[in-house]
Specification:
Layout (H helix, E strand, L loop, with lengths): L2 H10 L12 H4 L1 H13 L4 E4 L8 E7 L2 E7 L5 E5 L14 E2 L4 E2 L6 E2 L5 E3 L23 E7 L2 E5 L7 H4 L1 H7 L8 E2 L5 E6 L3 H8 L5 H4 L1 H6 L5 E5 L3 E6 L22 H4 L1 E6 L3 E6 L2 E11 L2 E10 L10 H28 L16 H12 L5
Antiparallel strand pairs: 1-10, 2-3, 2-5, 3-4, 4-9, 6-7, 7-8, 9-10, 11-18, 12-18, 13-14, 14-15, 15-16, 16-17, 17-18
The structure holds FE2/S2 (inorganic) cluster.
Length: about 375
């Protein structure tokens, strides 16, 4: 990191009242983006996908995350595993498209075959034509490279470095905050409850915009009309931060139908809803009748994909009888997230102004954004 960035980075670690935000280079410099991959993503528990992507035993889906080819596989026992999507023989990519495997994972190059748990099972002709073994090919040592993974609320998290604390330990503060949502059976709404947005911004700005409600009156006047700025509060913990509201109003159908409520929720959720950002890349929405997760995928230092998946509390909510309500709900969220694109792209362009010094936080409205900046900066403390 350049010396001028190091000096300004120290100011990010100050209390919110005096702190400055992250230096411009954290948004505009591809080299720093590469450094973030190592410091923020490889060592922590970022999200790479959803369990619903591989719903049935034998389902496999390739995912490229931070340039790393990964493979989500649902085993015969229902366990979801993540592997590096590469053959142990000559390094061929194993699976190029989502697929439902009837048997093994077969490499398309020389047909080495792997069980769904990653074990190498077959090595045809490896000892010469007609000889499927060789003394120097120890299959037991040539299984797929498994990536440490955990599934929470149907979101697939990975720890690429392999040495982070257990996910449930690492995310204990979020799990406690999520209350009954964390243990609820979630029902994805289906194709009408799934959408993605591609945004010309650094991934952090997508998160930062989600961390504050300060912008609601001007960017989301519609939302602000029933979920007002003054109804919101800040929550800051070690691994997440975000907004809560005291004025959540569930949607309803033409005849007064409502989505069913998640079981076991405390009265806090009768009118409350919370929107934590779990560092680094999952934005949650917890409401008593549905929840969603936005997976922020940092494609490049200035390009981000936001993948949105919406879940409900019962199977009935996923049926045809509630399709119109689900579509309306997804359209409502999509319109709000689209309203944010102008500001997250505008802030990215603003990072090219050489005099910009990271900005000045409002001690009242921006403590969540500052907490996120502090989290990022603390991972560079040894730089
Ligand atoms: Fe996979 Fe040769 S590269 S079998």
């Amino acid at each position: 990191m350049k010396p001028e960035n190091f000096a300004t980075l120290a100011r990010v670690l100050e209390p919110v009242n005096s702190a400055r935000g992250l230096p411009n280079a954290f948004y505009t410099d591809p080299a720093l983006h590469e450094e973030e991959k190592k410091r923020l993503f490889a060592k922590g528990w970022p999200a790479i996908g959803f369990g619903k992507d591989v719903p049935e035993p034998g389902d496999a889906k390739p995912v490229s995350f931070l340039g790393i080819p990964l493979l989500l596989v649902r085993g015969r026992d229902g366990t979801l595993r993540v592997f590096q999507n590469v053959c142990r023989h000559r390094g061929m990519i194993l699976v190029d498209e989502p697929i439902r495997l009837k048997g093994v994972i077969r490499c398309p190059y020389h047909a080495w075959c792997y069980e769904l748990d990653g074990a190498l099972r077959a090595t045809p002709h490896v000892g010469g034509a007609g000889h499927n073994t060789h003394p120097d090919i120890d299959r037991s040592a040539l299984g797929l490279f498994e990536v440490r993974s955990a599934v929470f609320m149907d979101i697939v998290f990975v720890n690429i470095s392999g040495d982070a604390p257990e996910f449930r330990v690492y995310a204990a503060d979020l799990i406690a905050r999520a209350e009954a949502f964390a243990d609820a059976k979630l029902f994805h709404g289906g194709p009408d409850s799934s959408f993605s947005l591609e945004v010309k911004t650094n991934w952090k700005l997508a998160a930062e915009n989600y961390l504050e409600s300060y912008h609601l009156p001007w960017v989301h006047p519609g939302l602000n009309s029933y979920s007002r700025l003054e109804d919101h509060y800040n929550v800051v913990e070690e691994t997440f931060a975000g907004q809560g509201t005291l004025a959540y109003t569930p949607g309803f159908g033409p005849n007064g139908e409502r989505f069913s409520r998640f079981p076991g929720l405390s009265p806090k959720w009768d009118k409350g809803a919370e929107y934590p950002t779990f560092f680094p890349n999952v934005l949650f929405g917890f409401q008593n009748d549905h929840c969603y997760a936005i997976l922020i995928e940092p494609v490049a230092h200035d390009r981000t994909i936001e993948r949105v998946e919406i879940y409900y509390a019962s199977e009935e909510m996923t049926g045809a009888g509630f399709a119109a309500m689900r579509e309306k709900n997804a359209a409502m969220w999509k319109s709000i997230f689209i309203e944010d694109i102008g500001v997250v792209e505008g802030m990215q362009r603003g990072r090219w102004a050489p005099a910009f010094d990271g900005g000045k936080f409002s001690p009242v409205m921006d403590p969540c954004t500052h907490a996120f900046h502090h989290w990022v900066a603390s991972h560079f403390a040894d730089a």
